[in-house]
Amino acid sequence: MKLERIVSGGQTGADRGGLKAAIALGISIGGWVPKGRRAEDGEVPEVYPLNETPSRDYPQRTEWNVRDSDVTVLFTWGDVFSRGTMLTKGMADKHGKPSCLVNLKTVDDHEAAKMASEFIQKFNPKILNIAGTRESKAPGIEKRVEHVLLLAFALGSEENLV
Fold first, then answer.
1. Has residue 162 been placed in a domain?
2. Contact (Cβ atoms closer than 8 angstroms) between residue 108 and residue 144
């Protein structure tokens, strides 16, 4: 099985870093966003073809992205017990979906890429959900997640990941 799509909720930070990496790699993107394409910076840009949930609330978007994916990689910055991280992890557990937590405050990009690559190779998903910390909580996390995923897929390509 090869990865077919990367999904996320379109929020600033880790979500958009995941979408940008997918675009750079030529991987299809998708996912759910709250009604009105709600994000902390206004609206999720139309460049990301994501579907709107019936609710403007973030939890529905989070659950639907977990539900519709095979696995989730969560990229955080320090606070691994934030409300959003705990919600995403809880939804993964609820739906019986494997998840991997990568704390970018405690590992460098190469170690983070290795962790993500090994997790993805282990579960060999068709649909990968990327979630995590918002840009306002960790300035620069969007670029780091994009970079880490590009490195992860470079490592994985040696194993025919994509």
1. no
2. no
